[in-house]
Amino acid sequence: MYEMVPARVFFTKGVGKHKEKLQSFELALRKAGIEKYNLVKVSSIFPPKCKIVTKNTGNPLIKPGQVVHCVLSDNSTNEPHRMISASVGLAVPAETEHYGYLSEHHGFGENEEKAGDYAEDLAASMLATTLGIEFDPEKNYDERKQIYRMSGKIIKARNITQTARGDKDGLWTTVLAAAVFLP
């Protein structure tokens, strides 16, 4: 039986603009440095004991054409000046034997901070529910973040976010953010 549990992950982001939507996506992949891989989107589990590495450390470990699993958020527009965002949030538990969560968020009209906080909040909230941390979902993320930290059960929450405004001349603009898994 094939068992692939990633041991490492790196985070990356990019933006691309082109008259064709697909080509703008390709240019965003190039900017992120992950265009030469066969990307397979996976869901939201951050494996136990998974180590976060830099893109510069992780990228050389992957061969062109290799099938690579990732959590990928992307968004596109050809509407001039429309703000778009793509974000991946991460929440890591203090207990290294437990899994964490990754989340994808893609929005319109949100700046980098707002989109990033939203993705981070999604990941932290999913992790908190599995760890039995009680919180009020109606409170804002800053208030919940303090509850998560005080519990001692969530040690790290972060995000990677790419935003851009739609090209003024109506070219397709694509943003993406990704968590790329490595063996």
Tell me what the structure shows.
With 183 residues, this protein is of the alpha+beta class. It has a single domain (8-182), classed as Pyruvoyl-Dependent Histidine Decarboxylase, subunit B (Pyruvoyl-Dependent Histidine Decarboxylase, Chain B), CATH 3.50.20. The protein is built from four helices and nine strands, in the order E-H-E-E-E-H-E-E-E-H-H-E-E. It has helices spanning 21-32, 55-58, 112-131, 141-151; strands at residues 8-18, 38-41, 45-46, 51-52, 67-77, 83-93, 100-108, 154-165, 172-182. It has a five-stranded mixed sheet. Strands 3-7-6-8 form a four-stranded antiparallel sheet, covered by helices on one side. Strand 6 and strand 7 form a beta hairpin. Helix 3 (112-131) crosses helix 4. The protein starts with 7 loop residues before the first strand and ends with a strand. The model has no long low-confidence stretch (mean pLDDT 93).
Name a few traits of the molecule.
alpha+beta; Pyruvoyl-Dependent Histidine Decarboxylase, Chain B; 9 strands
User: What's the oligomerization state?
Assistant: single chain
Helix percent reads 25-40%
CATH superfamily: Pyruvoyl-Dependent Histidine Decarboxylase, subunit B
Radius of gyration: 17 Å
SSE diagram, text form:
Layout: E1 8-18, H1 21-32, E2 38-41, E3 45-46, E4 51-52, H2 55-58, E5 67-77, E6 83-93, E7 100-108, H3 112-131, H4 141-151, E8 154-165, E9 172-182
Parallel strand pairs: 1-4, 2-5
Antiparallel strand pairs: 1-9, 3-7, 5-9, 6-7, 6-8
